[in-house]
Amino acid sequence: MASVMFRSPEESVKSLFHDLPETYQPTTLILYCAMCFFLALWTYGLFVPSGLFIPSLLIGAGWGRLVAILLHYISPTAKWVTFEKYALLGAAAQLGGIVRMTISLTVLLILYNILTGGVSN
User: Fold this and answer.
1) Which whole-number Å values give the CA distances from 22 to 25, 35, 72, in the listed order?
2) Of the candidates 13, 17, 103, which has an alpha carbon nearest to the alpha carbon of residue 53?
3) Which of 28, 33, 64, 93 is the Cys-Cys partner for 86 at CB 3.0 to 4.6 Å?
4) Which residues, including other chains, have CB under 8 Å from residue 2's CB and lie 6 or more apart?
5) Is 23 exposed, middle or buried (0-12, 13-18, 19+ CB in 10 A)?
6) For 36-81, what is each residue's pLDDT tens digit?
7) Which domain holds residue 111?
8) For residues 88 and 85, what is the distance between their CA atoms, to the nearest angstrom?
9) Are 93 and 48 in contact (CB under 8 A)?
10) Is 15 inside any structural domain?
């Protein structure tokens, strides 16, 4: 958990998108996502310019990777469970839900990650 907690938020997002499947344990992701979610709730109500863009990406990528881990436990031989894609979809869903971002910007985020080699086809 320290490897994701003590990095900058941008490096943590990259780590959740690109690291190997065995990097994170489910309990680590549950604790990390819950902590980031409650910290984002707290800072959102402070009336300070703290931002919600990167924290919502972190929360969504963590939940997406957690769902991929759980699906991998259910069906270990399934080829359709790719951790990077689930982390990216979770981040886009969380970003669209928290920030109420338009679909076009969320799709641009996904396309950028695919075109830069972040998600394998």
Assistant:
1) 7, 22, 11
2) 13
3) 64
4) none
5) middle
6) 889 888 888 787 877 788 888 899 999 999 999 999 999 888 888 8
7) 21-115
8) 5
9) no
10) no
The conformation of residue 80, written as its DSSP 8-state character, comes to: T
In a domain, 32, yes or no: yes
Which tokens is 40 given?
């984002």
The answer to whether residues 44 and 52 touch, using CB atoms and an 8 Å cutoff, is: yes
Q: Using CA atoms, how far apart are residues 72 and 58, in angstroms rounded to an integer?
A: 21
Residue 9 lies in a domain: no
Q: How many domains does the chain have?
A: 1
Contacting residues for 114 by C-beta, under 8 A, at least 6 apart: 121
What are the residues whose beta carbons fall under 8 Å from the beta carbon of 54, sequence distance 6 or more? 9, 10, 13
Amino acid at 62: G
Whether 60 is covered by a domain: the verdict is yes
CB 86 within 8 A of CB 64: yes
